[in-house]
Amino acid sequence: MKPGFDLLIRGGEVVNGDARAALDVGVAGGRIAALLAPGSSAAAEREIDATGLLVMPGGVDTHTHVAWPYDDTVTVDDWHSATRAAVLGGTTTIMDFVPPAEGGLAARCRARVEEAAADAVIDFGFHPILTASDTRDVEDIGKVIAEGFTSFKMYTTYEDRRVDDGAAWTLMRAIAANGGLPGFHAENHEILTSALDDQVRSGHLGLADYPHSRPGLAEAETIHMVSMYARRLNTPVYIFHVSGSDALDAVRFARRAGTVVHAETCTHYLAHDESVFTGEDAWRFVISPPIRGAADRLDLWSGIADGTVVSVGSDHCAYDTSAKRGWEHDHRHIPAGAPGIEARTPVLWNEAVNVRGLDPCQFVQVSAERAARALGLFPRKGRVAVGADADLVLWDPARAWTGADLRPVSPATFSLYERSSGTGLARHVVAGGRLVVEDGEFAGEKGAGRFLARAPMARP
């Protein structure tokens, strides 16, 4: 007779965003089938001993750029190497982007799914990027929302893709009307242009000057604008990579006024401050928006603790090291971005629990649950519960690591965490009911990941 479960995880402590308890977890058909009292007589085809481990929902990385096009080439990762690195770190769901390109929006979205589905080892979804050209075919927005692409990204800077105020309003209106979630890379283009012009005139273009080329005021101004639009449209809005106090203050202001603002920050803003720009390897840390001061970093942690920050993404973008180096005298030539898909969960755990004293439930909230709720993935993702996808990380809170243990997606790229160390790593990871990391080693299958088509969001 076939056992009742495909997989039974025994002896661990289940941690959700609101509670933790000693429970065994039964998995069948790729989903969590039962939460059982410890020591139950249930049988399974395979059992995992989780004694001393925390059994948590797999991480949800809200912000990755896998195989990303730039300067007539692409980053040095692919869908297999990137998702392999993600799951080794404890992430079981990633949200990537559909880049702007020639052709219709729906065709671009479908092509990106096909590209990922061939190689991804974990589940994935997409935020299509909209530009001013998409205002000519706004009916396509409703079509792709119906196909499961429900969250979007718009840039308010970068000449080749930015939307002005009118385009932002037009696109937000179409997204809201069809049950989608508008999102923004929020930096005021004119403020950035003025700040950079000042640096050019004064000759202050070194890496130590980089943070001042993109002041926090630019983030705050745009967050105020798009939040006002969102309030008028009765829609939530998602703000990607909030970097510090100015942006966070704008988010708090909008929330007090009644706007639902989902603020995302990123691992590097929580683990570093602007002192990184004084080191010999400052080129690594050129990221947009910039890593800011120590006080900004503390404020972001306050935002995590009080719920203002709903998610932490990696903003993974695995540039070839050679593309980043050699421009120490002029930061304008360095592409903004860095890899980090593999480091997100260990670094976040160490900084949140070991350094800041957050409890494991709060870690689950910010590493998985709040993101799943904001992006329409909950309760399928983000919770250890009957009926949820069996995406589980069996976490060893006592296992020590150094930067060398956080394996990058390619030897051709670099890490922001080479000098970091901490405790807390994934020992085993289950994705879709399959054991994909066993004793810290990859055991997954290329192409096993699924596209997460999400339903349109209900409006209040």
Automatic annotation (TrEMBL):
Q: Which is an annotated GO molecular function term of this record? A: hydrolase activity, acting on carbon-nitrogen (but not peptide) bonds, in cyclic amides
Source organism per entry reads Microbispora triticiradicis
Obligatory cofactor(s) = Zn(2+)
**What residues does the Amidohydrolase-related domain cover?**
54-401
Provide the protein name: Amidohydrolase-related domain-containing protein
Q: Which GO terms describe its cellular component?
A: cytosol
Domain of life, per lineage: Bacteria
* Family to which the UniProt record says this protein belongs: Belongs to the metallo-dependent hydrolases superfamily. Hydantoinase/dihydropyrimidinase family.
Q: Which InterPro entries match?
A: Amidohydro-rel (IPR006680), Metal-dep_hydrolase_composite (IPR011059), Metal_Hydrolase (IPR032466), Metallo-dep_Hydrolases_sf (IPR050378)
